[in-house]
Amino acid sequence: MAEQFIQNLIAERIGGNQFGKSTVIYKFEKIKRAKKAAMADRPDVEIIDMGVGEPDAMADYRVVERLTDEAQKWENRDYADNGIPEFKEAAARYMAEIYGIKVNPDDEVNHSIGSKPALAMVAQAFINPGDVALMTVPGYPVMGTMSKWLGGDVYNMPLLAENKFLPDLDAIPKEILKKAKLLYLNYPNNPTGATATKAFYKKVVEFAKANNILVVSDLAYGALMFDGNKPLSFLNVPGAKKVGIEIHSLSKAFNMTGWRMAFVVGNAKAVAAFATVKDNNDSGQFKAIQKAGITALENPNITEYTCAKYSRRHDMLVATLNKIGLKATKPKGSFYLYVPIPKGVKNGPKFKTAEDFSQYLIKEKSISTVPWDDAGNFVRFSVTFLAVDEFEEQKVMHEIERRLSDLEFIF
Prior knowledge:
By secondary structure, the protein is α/β, with parallel strands linked by helices. The chain has helices at about 1-5, 25-40, 60-70, 85-100, 115-125, 140-150, 175, 200-210, 240-245, 250-255, 270-280, 285-295, 300-325, 355-365, 390-405; strands at about 50, 110, 130-135, 155-160, 180-185, 215-220, 245-250, 260-265, 335-340, 345, 365-370, 370, 380, 410.
């Protein structure tokens, strides 16, 4: 009786009186269940987890030591609200050093407790009922989900291989553009690993100006570039600051996933709008964590070491997958490898979807991946698998080859 009472009070945006009753299982939950079943069926076979999208390493010792030191200081005990000036200043210096972009720490930068809530709060700052958020698919859905909760709508732009996994802005219907308020971009991209170009960003700026749209560039993987490719910010393009903001995360570049540190940078008015919403959502990240974040931002060599590791692992994984008959191409950035699925296995099962192939890999070969069927059929491998050194990385590659070498893939 009490449960039904609460059930009837739940907001429609998350299911209302049907909350918790859906039989649809989210893809990541399916992966978790399949991994659990594989471990139960073959307890002697170790799962090779290529599906996890978070760094396998701890934060740098200098960052940890700074946190330890700052956490013991009396002056760091209280609320940080919209952030300490020192962190904003460090973020501004970082933008100048890594991207060559000058920003004012006083009004063009604000911290966030991770990039995920920042994306949700940006929607709260800009979306009215009837407005549209332009979202890329496949992609990270948070801003779109929040837009719908606010009475807005989402227009999905497919990321296709023939467009180098960049959205086709010219294909958006005029009636959608009239209602569009936000444009979400994420490069280097999750899950495709694709990178944007300066020419593309120039087109984005022109598009945003012409259609009165705020660009929200999610640069969570921005610094993770390799093979001579340099980090590129949307804000590198002249005029970008007039039409957009960017969200930078310390999670991926500095192995600080659980620390929840990010910052929003760009158009001063948009940053102020975000800060107003943030004031009503949280009281700021722990000052000691912000100060540890400063140490990270002041030591970009941490990221350089991480990039070298991911680049090496990509080389290994691409070579291994191609050797066994898959068709993998190394990305220029991120720790994701996006691979088209085969149609099937000779004298074996056929795969209609990426989910079919992903489930086959985990159930039959104890290799965990993430399937994407939004725009073509691909599986995402992550090179953040657990391995303490290059020798261990090679062992993982040899084991993948061993498990899959008996298969002949059909394309």
